[in-house]
Amino acid sequence: MRPLRTLAHVAVVAGLLAGCASIDNQPVNRPLAGNLPDAMIVGTEGTSYSDDLMIGLAFSGGGTRAAAFSYGVLAEIDRVQVPGRGGTTSLLDRVDFVSGVSGGSVLAAYFGLKKRAALDDFRERFLLRDAEESLSTGVSPFSITRALAGGVNDSTQFPRWLDTNLFEGATFREFRSDRRPRVWINASDIYNRTSFVFGATAFGALCSDLSSYPIADAVAASAAVPVLFAPVVIQSFPRECNARLPEWIQRARNNPNAPPMLKSFADAIARYHDGSMPYVKLLDGGLVDNFGLSGFTIARMSSETPYGPFTPQQAVKLRRSIFVVVDAGRAPSGDWVQTVEGPRGVDLVMAAADTATEAALRASFTAFESTMADWQQQLVRWRCGLSAAQRQRFGVAPS
């Protein structure tokens, strides 16, 4: 009985301490220095590259395991040679989009930042390092107190480690929209229960400067496991810019038949914009989409054209598309299904978390699959309806 009594004493002390403790996570995002160009909020920013092949990669959650698995996939893609201007080129150089969530977001961001050079040192700089060296992970009265107060680790420790070991002060300014690949880092807005995609739409609605936001902080938000981490906070600066919401936001909010993923995202964006949410609280993106497909799906669902998020110059040349979803999820485990008793304690918590994550994952993949199939049909109809003059204006040589 003594261990139980000791545990009870620890819990009581931790509870008393938690009553006067709080986690202070100051937001690091900045307001816009001036007015926001309309293109940044309506999502019309384009890309200057175009060819007949579209490649998208999605790196799932799963901690360091997910980063390692995704790293192996990138290495294999790099070995594939495809015809290009002036000879063959690596398929890795043709990746258009990369999306990451939780552990997968570490490599997605690093690959987006360094391109193929990420393969040279990611293993040494991240996979072989102990990313938990700066974190509190043990069980103690202090950690229980912090957990009850909002999170064992605040929102400065992991971003600082990531910045020191990987990103070296890089911000979203490095992710230029006119260069491959376009990068989506996905977290979870735990108030609106929807994905938070670090991009122009969300930050435009917040009247906040995306270009100055540290990549390390976005990745840390994407990987912020509840309780182990306190939420990462993003501040809203309503009415401090001329941002106007895109028309699809209002249409999605007013349409009872709108896809649930799009409607919940639109509701969240509207709340950021109208000032009813001074602060956005973010945790692990795997809570709502452990495949990291929300960025792809929402970009297409919210498009005002049959070819978006591509430009017409890109869409008219497209012949082939490849989406690679890297799933580092775990299979069911444990022997408690072999007995009447169980699961207990940690096994119960893990089983509940895995069940919720898997349910959200299946829903996100179904939405993605349906959206991509519909996009293909709309692209075909749009291209078949183009006149010879339109095709030539979009850069297609007369046949």
Task: Return Rg in Å.
Answer: 22 Å
Counted by DSSP, the helix tally is: 15
Shape: globular
Helix-strand makeup class: alpha/beta
Ends: how far apart?
85 Å
Report helical residue fraction: 40-55%
Total count of strands = 9
| Major β-sheet annotation | 7 strands, mixed
Strand content: 5-15%
Mean pLDDT comes to: 84
State the low-pLDDT regions, or none.
Answer: 1-19, 37-48
The helix/strand order is HHEHEEEHHHHEEHHEHHEHHEHH
Question: Care to describe what's here?
Answer:
With 399 residues, the chain is of the alpha/beta class. Helix content is 44%, strand content 12%. The protein contains 15 helices and 9 strands. The protein has helices spanning 2-18, 38-42, 63-78, 103-114, 118-127, 141-149, 157-167, 200-205, 215-222, 247-254, 260-274, 294-301, 312-315, 345-384, 388-393; strands spanning 53-59, 81-84, 87-90, 97-101, 182-189, 194-197, 232-235, 279-283, 320-326. The strands form 2 sheets. Strands 1, 4, 5, 6, 7, 8 and 9 form a 7-stranded mixed beta sheet that branches. A two-stranded antiparallel sheet has the order 2-3. A hairpin with a 2-residue loop joins strand 2 (81-84) and strand 3 (87-90). Helix 1 crosses helix 6 (141-149), helix 4 (103-114) packs antiparallel against helix 9 and helix 7 (157-167) crosses helix 9. The longest helix has 40 residues, at 345-384. It is globular, with a radius of gyration of 22 Å.
